[in-house]
Amino acid sequence: MRLMSYADAGDARIGVETGDGVVDLRAAVAAHLADRGSADPAGEAAWRVPSDMVLFLTRAANDFELFRDAAAATTAPTAMDPAGIERLAPVPRPGKVIGVGRNYGAHAAEGALGRQEEPRLFTKFSSSVVASGVPVACPAGIVKFDWEVEIAIVVGKPMKHVPPADALSYVAGYTVLNDLSAREFQFDVSPPQTTFAKSHDGFTPMGPVMVTADAFGDPGHVDLTCHVNGVEMQRGNTHDMIFDCAYILSYISRYATLEPGDVIATGTPSGVGHFRDPPVYLKAGDRVTCWVDGIGAIENPII
User: Fold this and answer.
1) Burial status of residue 235 (CB atoms within 10 A of its CB: 0-12, 13-18, 19 or more)
2) Are 219 and 150 in contact (CB under 8 A)?
3) Structural domains in the chain plus CATH codes
4) How far apart, in whole angstroms, are the C-alpha atoms of residue 222 and residue 203?
5) What is the pLDDT along the chain (303 residues), one digit of tens a residue?
6) In what order do the strands lie in the sheet with 231-237?
7) Closest CA to 226 of 235, 217, 213, 214
8) What predicted TM-score, i.e. pTM, was given to this entire model?
9) How many CA atoms lie within 13 A of 277 on its CB side?
10) Pick from 16, 12, 17: which is nearest to 67 by CA?
11) Which of helix, strand or coil describes residue 194?
12) Spatial CA neighbour of 195 closest among 256, 114, 151, 203
């Protein structure tokens, strides 16, 4: 199932992207519950499908069968044209956004950086999250503005002390994330300020949908690319990850509880601008397109 958040007259809604367009999930669930004889289909649907994605994931607890059936039912509302919808990030305001640095072998090598023994973690402010299509401003004084295409995990159930073998069962789904970075703060100051370098307003474009884990399948062999102004800058595959998705989730859960709606950015392949010879950085007028196979693409203009 391809879940998304969108705005309707200024209010957030949750939808399902289908082959025919976008179906409003709450309306679809209300119709489906009415077909099943619910005494209060509208009220039950409003509880099961709140406007907030984090609360929706909390209540769903990784059981999406009802929602999948409702979106596919003949009584589901008429699908809307995606072109006429204001998309939001799939999780517009996650509780946590955690990034994993240097997690692709080729990316570590391009920066002459060694493979790490455990994941190198940083955070991104949740206020930096924006949707595909939203213009991202290059902050005043920043000239080393860089891109990083990533596949991001969205947590579906609370996780604490979960072994790697069980970790993927806690995943709600996967989305595309661009880990935009001001390299000045990451590399040119002492001590480095990695979290701040990656948390400026608009520095976490995400979307266009969240593909639920049951529909996505194995995240261990997935292609991803980044293009700037139509020119390919990154091409990689998740099999080059040093720490796979299951291990990352398990590792974090040893020390911090992961909660529904938390987002884990799992690292980027080689081809970032900072390590090119000569370096290449984003500037006003550029367009950055990040794509992950099985999910789709996000594109954001730089202003």
Assistant:
1) middle
2) no
3) 2-88 (no CATH), 97-301 (3.90.850.10)
4) 23
5) 999 999 998 899 999 999 999 999 999 999 999 999 999 999 999 999 999 999 999 999 999 999 999 999 989 899 999 999 999 999 999 999 999 999 998 776 776 677 788 999 999 999 999 999 999 999 999 999 999 999 999 999 999 999 999 999 999 999 999 999 999 999 999 999 999 999 999 999 999 999 999 999 999 999 999 999 999 999 999 999 999 999 999 999 999 999 999 999 999 999 999 999 999 999 999 999 999 999 999 999 999
6) 231-237, 223-228, 287-292, 296-301
7) 235
8) 0.96
9) 2
10) 16
11) helix
12) 203
Which residue has tokens 């594109």? 299
Rg over CA atoms, the chain = 19
| Alpha helices (runs of H) in 36-153, residue ranges in sequence order | 41-48, 53-60, 65-72, 105-110
Query: Distance between CA 238 and CA 218 in Å, rounded?
Result: 10
Enter the tokens of residue 178. Answer: 């661009």
SS3 237: strand
